[in-house]
Amino acid sequence: MSHVQAPEASVRPTKNVHVELTVNGEPREFLCAPRESLLDVLRNRLGLTGAKEGCNNGNCGACAVILNGVPVNSCLVLGVEAAGAEVETVEGLAKGSHLHPLQQCFLEDAALQCGICTPGFLVSAKALLDRNPDPSEEEIRLHLAGNLCRCTGYDKIVRAVQDAAKANT
Amino acid sequence: MKAFEYAAPRRESELAGLFSGRPGATAVLAGGTDLVGLMKKMIVAPDRVVNIKEIASLYGISADSAGVTVGAVTRLDEMLDSADLDAFPAVKQAIRGINSMQLQSQGTIGGELCQRPRCWYFRNGCGLPTELGRMVERGDNRYHAIFGNRGPAKYVSASRIAPALVALGASVRIVGPASGEAVEGPPKNGAPVAQDGNALGEAIMPLADFFVTPRAPHQGETVLDPDQIVTHIHIPRDEQIASATYEVRQSEGPEYPLAAAAAALRIEAGVVTEARIVLGQVAPVPWVSEAAAAAIVGQAVTPESARAAGEAAVARATPLSQNRYKVQLARVSVERAILQAAGLETGGF
Ligand SMILES: Cc1cc2nc3c(=O)[nH]c(=O)nc-3n(C[C@H](O)[C@H](O)[C@H](O)COP(=O)(O)OP(=O)(O)OC[C@H]3O[C@@H](n4cnc5c(N)ncnc54)[C@H](O)[C@@H]3O)c2cc1C
To answer: What ipTM does this complex have?
Structure first.
């Protein structure tokens, strides 16, 4: 077992590596092999199954999480890369039973059907609103272009993000 | 994914001990958006992965009177946000084309330039691009090269930003183990040459010479040896140069263009006095069109002169059985990149 954050570069073993990080504001740690993705680690080692495995190659955005303030596809990040990082997942959006405005608006605007893409959309939309609290429709569509939905046709999702932006201001 | 060792050096100097000169043994990890996908499919199966994102000297954007230097692990969203890069619209337009917030904020400029070909034969495990020449020739080659495709490599260079950077005359800094001998002078045969006796040698070369068309299996798509990395990209400053990137795309999503072109023009008293026109997604390297440049130099930019440059660019195209359509798209890309650089209506949408 070894710490990835050691000051000097040294080669980490092929077997398990000890990683410490912050997830949704709380310190967490796990052991993982270098070949496990951050998505694998979140779901299988930390019990956070909100981020979904869709395409597993960066096309669909269902696994989006916020890593050190920017949205990433967690299926393309190695778990060991998250050492010392701050990760926000869809589980961190609601505060207790109080839904995040995006979650509330997704429900009210029926911006989901089967739901598998929804955590990714919520996380990407949160990253957008954190950066730009009042985006235009076009900006919303561009910023969500890396998230695929095969049910809704996107209009309701875009509307929900617009409504959440209004609710926030 | 095959099991591998993982290293995250903090300094350039630590790289020296981490690489092996054996092709495929060690992989450089930057944003991972290309590499991790390839490792999952076992198309790339290194014994060791070296994450270079923790090396502080490879990160960030700095500007001085000579130009702008971008560290290889700088993220694409940071480049979009950088006012220092406003002077190079062709670069920002190309990055905006990568239409996924996740990929922009995860992908790095070094990784973008070094990404492997998207050729679907390669991505489906049919082997290295050069071994596929005949398969591509006979098979479905609709997204393959229309220039530089007479040899075994028929894929197109994937980088979306390279045409803009090549048009702007950018250079790259490369480091790798030094030979131990001090060597003076320009790189030989386009290969970087170690310039000091330290464990790590550096070379600086035009980005245009960085990309190569492999002629045999196990040759790469760039001049990099397995133990070398790109550390910085430098774009020279020239207030007189106007630039643009124009891409023909089939959708607004995170997909590659079907054809693209970048134009960098010096326009004096209404006349183009110098031009670099570089096509993307049409050849195994960013394709510099001397013919297009020659057609526009000495002319005022008008719809007619831009069209003539587009026609000159594709006059010697050699399409494969299923990609003749790309000739027209390449022509239009050149025409519209020139119009856009000059601030004229492109007629596109
Ligand atoms: C769904 C999807 C869509 C995409 N769409 C586009 C697109 O439209 N346009 C586009 O251009 N790209 C696209 N990309 C490709 C690519 O992910 C990005 O271009 C990205 O910028 C690559 O950077 P990275 O830092 O993630 O690279 P990595 O995946 O970390 O590395 C890519 C390759 O370059 C090597 N490498 C990385 N950095 C260096 C360095 N400094 N020196 C030497 N070698 C290095 C790696 O070993 C690897 O072989 C897409 C990817 C996905 C998954």
So the answer is: 0.91
CB-CB neighbors (< 8 A) of B105 in chain A: 70-72, 127
Per the structure, the count of domains in chain A is: 2
Hey, what's the torsion of the CAs at B122, B114, A67, A47, to 10 degrees? 30
Q: In this structure, which amino acid lies at residue B347?
A: G
Question: Which residues in chain B are contacts of A37 at CB distance < 8 A?
Answer: 36
The answer on A113 and A156 residing in a single domain is yes
Range of the domain at A163: 101-168
CATH number of the domain encompassing residue A74: 3.10.20.30
DSSP B108: B
Q: Does B60 touch chain A (CB under 8 A)?
A: no
> Using the beta-carbon criterion (under 8 Å), do B14 and A37 form an inter-chain contact?
no
Domain ranges for chain B:
56-113+162-236, 241-341
Residue B189 has pLDDT above 70, yes or no: no
Residues in chain A: 169
* CA distance to A10, B53, B188, B194, B228, per residue, from B174 (Å): 22, 16, 14, 9, 7
Nearest CA to ligand 1 atom 19: B112
Q: At residue B65, what are phi and psi to the nearest 5 degrees?
A: -65, -25
Residue B129: band (very low, low, confident or very high) from pLDDT cuts 50, 70, 90: low
Rounded to two decimals, the pTM is 0.93
- Which CATH class name applies to B56-113+162-236? alpha beta
Amino acid making up residue B7: A
Same domain flag for A118 and A159: yes
- Would you say domain B241-341 falls under CATH 3.30.390.50? yes
A146:B29 CB<8 A:
no
Q: CB A17 to CB B6 under 8 A?
A: yes
What is the separation, in whole angstroms, between the first and last Cα of chain A?
Answer: 48
User: Considering A28, A58, A92, which residue would you say is the last residue of a domain?
Assistant: A92
Strands (E), chain A: 17-23, 26-32, 64-67, 70-73, 86-88
Q: Please check whether residue B53 touches A, CB under 8 A.
A: yes
Which residues does ligand 1 sit against, CB inside 6 Å?
Answer: A 57-59; B 27-35, 37, 52, 72, 76, 98, 103, 106-108, 110-112, 114-116, 159-160, 224, 229-230, 254-256
* A58 and A115 inside one domain: no
Low-confidence ranges of chain A (pLDDT < 70): 1-10, 169
pLDDT, tens digit, 9 for 90 and up, residues B245-267: 999 998 877 789 999 999 999 99
Report the gap between the CA of B185 and the closest CA in chain A (Å).
33
Residues A107 and A54 in one domain: no
Final residue of a structural domain among A73, A92, A111: A92
Whether B241-341 and B56-113+162-236 are alike in CATH topology: the answer is no
Q: Quick one: closest CA in A to B14, which residue?
A: A9
